[in-house]
Specification:
Layout (H helix, E strand, L loop, with lengths): L8 H7 L13 H11 L11 E6 L2 H10 L4 H4 L3 E7 L4 H16 L9 H18 L5 H13 L11 H25 L3 E5 L4 H8 L6 E9 L23
Antiparallel strand pairs: 1-2, 2-4, 3-4
Helix pairs in contact: 1-8, 2-8, 3-9, 5-6
Length: 245
């Protein structure tokens, strides 16, 4: 489904604000769904796509999520919510999906006929990625971390090998997708508010998620009330965060 974008990317970024009070106006479900599809085009570490998106439109579920989000205005007045979930636990499934896709691109042929580049890509998903993601109660991750630090004395090496590091990787990718979603919504004059204030355990129970799933953020969606934008946008001076070397 193609949507006519009313704003350019730059205009959408300028327009987007964290809106905390929404009008009592319905959103087009398909337009929101399309913005979620655009979210899935965000960059993601190793193309693992360790994310899920839940579009909440049912009043009963919205009410439960509002309570789990401490009844804050951005939840209480939202016409819909989108819950972004990080799923590091699905890494084996995503590895297989990537391997299957690569083989479909390379064509049916014996492994010996793969090019050097094709062999490297398959090896990356069949050996390197599992080495990074596989762990056992944090012990293997700690050992990998120690080994990588020693190797790093002699040459550059990827150092984020602990279970906590891989959780951060999955969360970063999910956040990139969330930003894609919010900019896409802004482009069609829909508003959003990313929320981190919620009871994650209750949210997972409401959505019937497994314990290994992690809530990245809940995004309230709607059309802004003028009072819903709390003041002018504040950013520290650009010179404090920009460095050119």
């Amino acid at each position: 489904m193609d949507l006519i974008k009313e704003k350019s990317v730059s205009e959408a970024i300028q327009y987007r604000r964290s809106v905390r009070v929404f009008k009592n106006e319905a959103l087009d479900n398909e337009k929101v769904k399309e913005c979620i599809r655009l979210a899935t085009l965000a960059p993601t570490s190793s193309n693992m796509q360790l994310w899920e998106f839940y579009q909440i439109t049912t009043p009963e579920v919205l009410e439960k999520l509002t309570q789990a989000s401490f009844n804050q205005n951005a939840a209480k007045t939202a016409r819909q919510m989108v819950v972004v979930v990080a799923r590091k636990d699905l890494w084996r499934k995503r590895v297989q999906s990537n391997v299957s896709f690569l083989k479909s691109q390379y064509g049916e042929k014996p492994p010996a006929d793969y090019s050097k580049r094709e062999k490297f890509a398959l090896n990356y998903y069949q050996k390197i990625v599992p080495t990074l993601y596989f762990d056992f109660i944090g012990i293997l991750g700690a050992l990998k971390f120690l080994v990588f630090q020693i190797i790093g004395i002699f040459k550059p090496i990827y150092r984020q090998a602990r279970r906590s590091d891989m959780r951060i990787v999955a969360q970063k990718s999910a956040a990139l997708a969330a930003q894609n979603f919010m900019i896409s919504m802004a482009a069609i004059n829909y508003d959003t508010c990313p929320m981190e204030g919620f009871d994650s355990l209750r949210v997972k129970k409401i959505l019937n998620l497994p314990s290994a799933a992690e809530i990245n953020m809940i995004i309230g969606c709607g059309i802004r009330e003028e009072s819903g934008v709390y003041g002018e946008r504040f950013r520290v001076p650009f010179e404090e965060v920009y460095f050119k070397l």
